[in-house]
Design goal:
This protein has 298 residues and is mostly helical. The protein has 16 helices and two strands. The protein has a two-stranded antiparallel ribbon with strand order 1-2. The mean pLDDT is 94.
Length: 298
């Protein structure tokens, strides 16, 4: 039974439970060889995270009338790519972090080599899930979805954004440069999640463009608030090491402007997202997610 649209917490919980159950079924059992790798994959994927990207996929699917049985696989594929990116971002060669989602990072709990293999395996599994299941009206759309996720994860998306981030450490970026970095590093996968969810149903060009504009705004707002929380919230609240951006001299919205100005920017981006959805049917949960992204404290 689907919770009513006005009960946002119940809807979020239902979606999170659905994706958690599916991820548990998709991931290889820890008892299957290679056991240590499969155990580590399950350790990092299950039992944590806000699942914002699957939530965006489920919400966008409501606009296009997509069945949950399709959307869940697209949502799972995006989440697997996201988690793989976290595992690799936390490595000593990248951000060198030891806490993620309230528990030791994979290279700390296991070892660095295992963490690299976990990321590799999760990315491969994501594309296997998206390729093997019936997620779209036609094979042509499904191929487009595979290409969209690949681009969002690659050098013109998330990996490229991370490369820019690493190259920018210790430097002062202009606002446009910072936005360019985060449109790729954070925003690309958020945009992919939204559009993949919508592509599981019937989608015209105008609606797709508006959803993409919405997701671009939300992706930037998400990063702005991440930067604010990294500066303000304790590690126990965040579930990851607080203050690490400043410690690593990374360019952030908070380093470019004060916290008040950063929150004002996030609110402008939220309004831009709401405006992009104006008049779209069944977009209540997308509106609510825009508010959640900006108002969250973790």
């Amino acid at each position: 039974m689907t919770p009513p649209a006005n009960d946002f917490p119940a809807w979020v919980f239902a979606c999170q439970q659905r994706i958690e159950t599916l991820l548990d079924a998709i991931l290889p059992p820890a008892s299957v060889a290679p056991q240590r790798l499969h155990e580590a994959m399950r350790y990092t994927v299950l039992g944590g995270g806000k699942r914002v990207r699957p939530l965006l996929a489920f919400a966008a699917a409501e606009v296009s009338g997509a069945p949950l049985e399709r959307v869940q696989y697209a949502a799972a594929a995006v989440e697997l790519v996201h988690v793989y990116s976290l595992v690799h971002d936390d490595l000593p060669a990248m951000d060198d972090d030891d806490l993620r989602r309230g528990k030791p990072t994979v290279h700390v709990e296991y070892d660095e080599a295992t963490a690299i293999l976990v990321g590799d395996a999760l990315q491969s599994l994501a594309f296997e899930v998206l390729a093997r299941h019936d997620v779209a009206e036609t094979p042509r759309i499904q191929l487009d979805m595979l290409g969209r996720l690949a681009q969002a994860a690659g050098s013109r998306g998330m990996a490229g954004g991370q490369a820019i981030d690493l190259d920018s450490t210790g430097k002062t970026l202009e606002l446009a440069e910072l936005e360019f970095m985060h449109i790729h590093k954070t925003g690309a996968l958020i945009r992919a999640a939204t559009l993949l969810g919508a592509q599981c149903g019937t989608l015209d060009a105008d609606t797709q463009a508006r959803l993409d504009h919405y997701a671009k705004s939300i992706g930037l707002a998400f990063q702005v608030i991440d930067d604010v929380l990294d500066a303000e919230a304790p590690s126990a609240t965040l579930g990851k090491t607080a203050g690490k951006d400043a410690a690593h001299r990374k360019p952030t919205y908070v380093s470019l402007m004060d916290i008040g100005a950063a929150r004002e920017l996030a609110n402008r981006l939220r309004q831009d997202a709401h405006d992009a959805l104006e008049g779209l049917p069944n977009s209540t949960h997308l509106h609510q997610l825009a508010d959640f992204v900006v108002e969250r404290n973790f």
